[in-house]
Amino acid sequence: MKRIITWMVVFSLLWVSCGKGNPSSSSVPPPPSVNPGGDQGGGDEEDPGDDNTPKPWEANRGKVVRPTSGNGWTITTIEPGIIYYHFDGYDSVSGANQWIYVTEIDLSNSAYAVKLGYYSTNSTASRVMSSTGAIASINAGYEKAALWLQLNGNTYSQISANTIGTTGVPQWKSEAAVYLNQDQDVRIRFTGKGKTLSEWRTIYGYKANTEKNFITSAPMLIDDYEPVGEDFCTLHPASAYPDKDGKTSNSENPYVHQGSLTNPRTAIAQTAEGQVFFIVVDGRRGNSVARGISCAQLTDFLVKYFNPQYAINLDGGGSSTMCVKGQGDPTTHVVNYPCDNRTSESSTTIAGATVTTPKETNGPDHAGERGRDTFFYVVKKQ
To answer: I want to staple 290 with a disulfide (CB 3.0 to 4.6 A). Which of 99, 311, 314, 360 is the partner?
Structure first.
């Protein structure tokens, strides 16, 4: 009898280990010490070292924060539930003049849907606006090889590159993700917190079995009110990311990339009350005009003026573009001033064709959009 029971136990263990009892686990098993089914990052489990001492950011829970008109802020209601904020002036957080653009989408209003779009031959934020009838749009992901992109259940990228482009800088651009259902469910989560590149691939591979739409990015700026973006550069020292020549000053080094004070930024955030924010910051125009902002400063800026529960940095620099219905350029609705044609003629590839934009001649203009392959946008549901 004991022998029969023993063989039954062994057979059961073999059956489970081969994944027969759970088909989804056989293709991409979760990494060690990680609960990939949860929404939080870093394994989704509580920190065993947490002493439950209240943290400073806990005081922000339940606070609804918005800027008011004046002191550099202009506020415009685009449609019921869609508010456009424009800041032009001296920002005490960064200690410089800034041009900052924020579109608030109230997803407690059932009229709107936030979507992620992928264009294999590239597009621009303004083309996305015109082709989808969107109310607002922003650029989204970094270069495709640096992220995991899942759309409508199809995987288009799996963080295929170990390094960033041809620089040799180790990959760092997928520590967190935006999950959405192409309607009103938008979740920004620190899924890859503290994990290695191989663990990211495993974690997001598991997520690809359970989430139809998501895109990864970095840095995470705000995680359940904790301003984690303040510490990104400390946790990613330049010395840990040498390029192929052994130098740590490469522009793709995370310490340089996110610690610079001169870069335009794009971000997306959400509140506990159901609002989503599209955020773009202009830059590279001097301290007295629009200097740009670091990830730590963008974190603190968002906490001060909007207090989101979650926020993540998206692709920035020359890619940073926001379009808002009825605002900015009367034809393209680009509201910010993309920097690619700031000092010289710029070219970008869109739908397989090279598009050339002349250098700015009479001060900043809304031209110079860079062709990109992923965008977030909001539409009014039919």
So the answer is: 99
- Residue ranges per structural domain of the chain: 77-352
Contact 320, 334 (CB under 8 A): no
303: left (phi over 0), alpha (psi -120 to 50) or beta: alpha
Tens-place pLDDT, residues 218-233: 999 999 999 999 999 9
Q: What is the mean pLDDT of the chain?
A: 90
Query: Do residues 233 and 258 lie in contact, with contact meaning Cβ atoms separated by under 8 Å?
Result: yes
As beta bridge partners, residue 106 has 275
User: Residue 171: what are its φ and ψ, rounded to 5°?
Assistant: -65, 135
Tokens 């989408």 — which residue?
105
Q: How many CB atoms lie within 10 A of CB 90?
A: 14
Task: State the pLDDT confidence band at 182, using cuts at 50, 70 and 90.
Answer: very high
Q: Is the pLDDT of residue 187 over 80?
A: yes
Are 345 and 354 spatial neighbours (Cβ–Cβ below 8 Å)? no
Return d(Cα 30, Cα 349) in angstroms, integer: 38
Contact 307, 294 (CB under 8 A): no
Nearest to 219 by CA among 312, 83, 101, 157: 312
Tell me how far apart the alpha carbons of residues 228 and 264 are, in angstroms, rounded to a whole number: 20
Alpha helices in 63-160 (DSSP H): 125-132
The confidence score (pLDDT) of residue 50 equals 61
Q: Which residues contact 45 (CB under 8 A, 6 or more apart)?
A: 33, 35, 38
Element holding 256 (H helix, E strand): helix 254-259
Sign of CA dihedral 54, 57, 60, 61: negative
Q: How many residues does the chain have?
A: 382
Neighbouring C-beta atoms of residue 29, cutoff 10 Å: 14
Q: Convert the pLDDT of each residue in 243-288 to its tens digit.
A: 999 999 999 999 999 998 899 999 999 999 999 999 999 999 999 9
The average pLDDT across 113-142 equals 98
Q: What are the tokens at 88? A: 């032009």
Mean pLDDT for 24-52 is 43
- Pair 346, 91: CB distance under 8 Å: no
Single pTM value for the model = 0.89
Residue type, 153: G
Residue 70's DSSP bridge partners are: 73
